[in-house]
Model the fold of this input.
Amino acid sequence: MKRIIVVVLLIVIAGIAGVVRSHSKSGHFVGFASHKSGEQVRDEIRQSYQLEPGAAVEVAGINGFVKIETSDTKTADVFIERSAESKEAFDRRKITIEANGSSLRIRGEKGDSGFFDRLFGSSPSEQITLKLPRQISLQTKGVNGPVTVGEIDGSVDVKGVNGRVQIAGAKGTVTFKGINGNITVGLSELSADGVTLGGVNGNIHLQLTTGLNADFFATGMNGNVASTLSDVSIEKDK
Done:
């Protein structure tokens, strides 16, 4: 039988700052900066790529929210808006985008500035908006902000998020670990590996399709388990 496993521990995950600088090899880049004292500097990255069904998408090291919309398309549209206190702040981190037909990777990485500059300098922030095909597998990690995702036909792997996580629908293997925020996920189908959640400091709301057959195990919880489904029974031990 397919399974849902939830292991909930009260831990606070410090978001991995993806304080970054723009870097891309193709497409259009638009940057604009404020020259008035006290105003933030902003720039943008806009890219489009073709993805094959089942392509792997990774978003990692982001200091800000991640929003992913999905539809029946083969095109991945990437929009990244960044802001910082100065142009020099962008040099402390960079964003890299790597894409081909089978994968799309967006990562925040160290820039070219010195160690002390990165350590004591101000931190830029990002707002990531992606419009992706529904037939992908998704991995996000090290996000210091909320993560919102549409329906995904492949696997979903979310780790190290400092913010709420919302997944409209998932059909493959689903894993959440190290989440400092509430989780809401719709489950229309389950793979043989089911759903695993561990190290979550927040509420977990599982939305199940009618007739979904699974066993639910929860251990190490500081809270309650409740169900609004008539065909679900809950047995509790000590």
The chain has a mean pLDDT of 80.
